[in-house]
Write a structure and sequence with these properties.
homodimer, Rossmann fold, 2 domains, 11 helices, 33% helix
Chain lengths: 348, 348
Amino acid sequence: MTQPSAKALVPFVSVDNMMRLVNHIGIEQVLRDLATYIEEDFRRWELFDKTPRVASHSDVGVIELMPTSDGEAYGFKYVNGHPKNTSEGLQTVTAFGLLADVYTGYPVLLTEMTLLTALRTAAMSAVAARYLAPKGADTMAMIGNGAQSEFQSLAMKAILGLKTVRLYDKDAAATEKCARNLSGTGLTVVKCTTPEEAIRGARILTTCTADKQNARILTDNMVGAGVHINAIGGDCPGKTELASGILSRAQVFVEYPEQTRIEGEIQQMPPDFPVTELWQVLAGTARGRSDDRQITLFDSVGFAIEDFSALRYVRDKVRDTPYHTDLDMLADPDDPRDLFGMLHRASL
Amino acid sequence: MTQPSAKALVPFVSVDNMMRLVNHIGIEQVLRDLATYIEEDFRRWELFDKTPRVASHSDVGVIELMPTSDGEAYGFKYVNGHPKNTSEGLQTVTAFGLLADVYTGYPVLLTEMTLLTALRTAAMSAVAARYLAPKGADTMAMIGNGAQSEFQSLAMKAILGLKTVRLYDKDAAATEKCARNLSGTGLTVVKCTTPEEAIRGARILTTCTADKQNARILTDNMVGAGVHINAIGGDCPGKTELASGILSRAQVFVEYPEQTRIEGEIQQMPPDFPVTELWQVLAGTARGRSDDRQITLFDSVGFAIEDFSALRYVRDKVRDTPYHTDLDMLADPDDPRDLFGMLHRASL
């Protein structure tokens, strides 16, 4: 056997290596870095090749491909969503992603993206909050203490300077787990037993629950003036977390309206319900928060460009580390026309 | 570090292992097996989730995702097309693919697909020829002696009983390479110096050239009655190989009309040009060849279901062999809600 050439090898970041990479850099630094990469890409939003997810639905779940390109790099994420998996000891969501060179079409990175998606989702929320939350907001209510809750809390600390997080989950064990994980991070953690208690004094309200049906985690009378709502959990048709009365009173910011109107909180509202595209706020062409009493809402569903930013970051960071292995994934005959000869010679 | 559970590991077939697998089974047996898998899937064509490729174009090439699902398994192929790559010592086309379980959304196979695509394309051609070529046809003209030519020739031998192949390429070195690779396979190989010489006595005419512009590898007066044309090379807008007069005289069979009308030979014809869907011939609901004097044409562009068949085959065959490695690609915390805890514990 001849060895494949370097060009035919694709760096692969396993789950194990992703954990090593993140722990090596430090999770708060990773979150800050991801925020920087996301901001860069949101500022040049218009040059991206944007397309809605390519979804394949079944009775029990969905498998999606989320591609995008900035003209130099091409990225896509594979992600599934199977709520019934948890009861079978499997993950609801698993993901991996690929980055390729547009000029050659060759993949340049294959990586796990379950952890990476959790990190980029949290960094995205903190970027939005930096532009939308009231000045000086340093207390957050974290409603829903599942897999995303610690990442959200730490990103708000690392990027926005959050000091206190007030936890609530209808399952007290989830709150205990989140509080335990956040101990020693420098955040003041308050465990609450009702949503009303959790939002007391909080000027950032993050909802991240897993209810499948239309839910009302926050009702209209719970939300007063001068708060920023970071709504993470509503992310597919039929799945929302906020009472529509809140949406009517809020200035709503979204990633990609074509997708959010189908998947986000605003699926409850008419198709012409006014929204602001977040990238325009970052680019300086649209206004973020206009005054201290406004209610701002980031209706987050996750968009391919955020994954692209995360893939770019991992490619840049992993390059000179041992935290990857090389996959012999691309056939590379010496003579491009002699694929058959390569196969035949391998048998000798 | 705890080890990831078996559920979190994805079998990966590298280029090296694909070559070992194919050489272990024997290439002619692989081609026959692939033909069987393709026939199975074409017969149940209607239950597949079909979508045109998701393409991202640039000035120098294209990157495509080709997904499909039969409701039990989901597959997609990543494939690029960069004609200028050859001059830079890179492949024009590289590909890899993934198969997943629709019920869980978990990937079950990641594999190189450059070699696998060459094999499935050849098997597909031979399946079509079995239904469309004149009875007893045992001589093929192979026009274009590039990377696909040996695979085409061997598939026609293994699946159809081809005895003689008559080679022509405008580059004599390609013909020499193809003839050398086919020596010892049992095929009678005749090297020709003109297309006219190559088609002499051949009742199957395979065209597989790389001309980018609209070409006329076969002109109208070269094609007489009672032949089957297997047109492989025309596979993107602006790339065709046959004079339109041939199309007018032929009964044209296609994979997926929506895609072939854009990419295939029939892009030269009006949008309502009559075609027969090949799957209907295999399912017995449409007629294949109707008489010995008919000209049949398989206008092949390649469709996602063929890749799906190939992915199914590799999954089935590789299972109990050493020809794969396991990739730690899916995050698998003991408690699905404790992704953060898994990351944190990895740092201890």
